[in-house]
Amino acid sequence: MTVDSAADALMPTYNRADLAFERGEGAYLQNWDGTWYLDFASGIAVTALGHGHPHLVAALTDQAQKVWHTSNLFRIPEGERLARRLCAASFAESVFFCNSGVEAIEAAVKMARKYHDDTGNPHRWRVIACHDAFHGRTLTGIAASGSDKYRKGFEPTMPGFDHVAYDNMNQVRQAITDETAAILVEPVQGEGGIRPADLQYLAALRQVADEYGLLLIFDEIQCGMGRTGRLFAHEWAGVAPDIMPLAKGIGGGFPMGAVLTTQAVADVMGPGSHGTTFGGNPLAMAVGNAVLDVMLAEGFLDGVDTVARDLWAQLRDLAARYPDVIAEVRGAGLMLGLKCAVANADMVAALRGEHMLSVPAGDNVVRLLPPLIIGHDEAAEAVRRIERACVHLGGEASQ
């Protein structure tokens, strides 16, 4: 077989842009031709501390010179330390480390079923999830995600999920049956179009879960780890879940996931109930602790919130001036979405033409997911590039 280029050997599962980046610094990436791009994609909310962060680089380099992998047959002290720190900073009392968001979702669903089985309710196994959600691309993930486009070609779908409208408590209550084990919700839908849930809705989910003896699962894979200006998005509602899958920003770019739980859930997950070969290895744990060092530093999350509010205000002003291009600004913190009046693919391309990276989402939205380390200067620069993209797309500034 003749391969015309290296790319031809890759399975065509991605619609890749014709860009390849050689290096990064902070909120910028440099293409192979030397062009710098303002990165408001962050690898889809992954490089939360930007590129080349010195503390993360030092932690990874130091650990790489010691030991990379030993497996979970042995203790991993840095993992124990990271688990304690995550528990101290959250509702959680126990942590399971894995490698990715969808692995965290798989573990969360298993935990919900195992909890009810062990507590005398084996008939409780179904999970209420939301339309337009995204929980990953395994068979469990696409079954949990309430979107036909992810399921097409992979049916019949794995059973066990009942879908309701997002942010709608009436439908949640109507969906509860004697077989319901848990409710699975993203506090801010990402792939579904940057849709933050009403804080009263999140609080009501906690109330109804307690009322019916259900487990509440908040999927904070994209909206967690500081993205909304608090360490976890659900904190804004003043309630806590029983189970919380995490990934993306938790490793700052290193493949890493986690599931945070209460002790009651952790107690049913004895030896052999779940596992992972690579999850929680020394390299991941070193980076995870380094990420937490930065995010828990005094003033860091307040700084994220301050810059986010500044960027939000500037984007709202821009949308008011270019309504024929930007119909609405959505989101929370530095998880923002531009609901477009033009095709969102055209906006992504126009931004790329202005050397700015963004991410498309459902409902004709463009996601803006900058590194959490941006300041007011990068926010202002992003707005200037977005305005030039609006003009390129034919927008005329209104007075």
Outline the fold blueprint.
Elements: E1 21-25, E2 28-31, E3 36-39, H1 42-45, H2 54-64, H3 77-88, E4 94-98, H4 101-118, E5 126-130, H5 139-144, H6 148-151, E6 161-164, H7 169-175, E7 180-185, E8 188-189, E9 195-196, H8 199-212, E10 215-218, E11 243-246, E12 257-261, H9 263-266, H10 282-295, H11 300-321, E13 326-332, E14 335-340, H12 344-353, E15 356-357, E16 359-361, E17 365-368, H13 376-392
Parallel strand pairs: 3-15, 5-6, 5-7, 7-10
Antiparallel strand pairs: 1-2, 2-3, 4-12, 8-9, 11-12, 13-14, 14-17, 16-17
Helix pairs in contact: 2-10, 3-10, 11-13, 12-13
Molecular structure report:
The strands form five sheets. A four-stranded mixed sheet has the order 1-2-3-15. It has a four-stranded parallel sheet with strand order 6-5-7-10, with helices on both faces. Strands 13-14-17-16 form a four-stranded antiparallel sheet, covered by helices on one side. Helix 3 packs parallel to helix 10 (282-295) and helix 12 crosses helix 13 (376-392). The protein has helices at 42-45, 54-64, 77-88, 101-118, 139-144, 148-151, 169-175, 199-212, 263-266, 282-295, 300-321, 344-353, 376-392, and strands at 21-25, 28-31, 36-39, 94-98, 126-130, 161-164, 180-185, 188-189, 195-196, 215-218, 243-246, 257-261, 326-332, 335-340, 356-357, 359-361, 365-368. Helices cover 36% and strands 18% of the residues. The chain is α/β, with parallel strands linked by helices and 399 residues long. The chain folds into two domains: 6-52 and 299-392, Aspartate Aminotransferase, domain 1; 67-295, 3-Layer(aba) Sandwich (Aspartate Aminotransferase, domain 2), CATH 3.40.640.10.
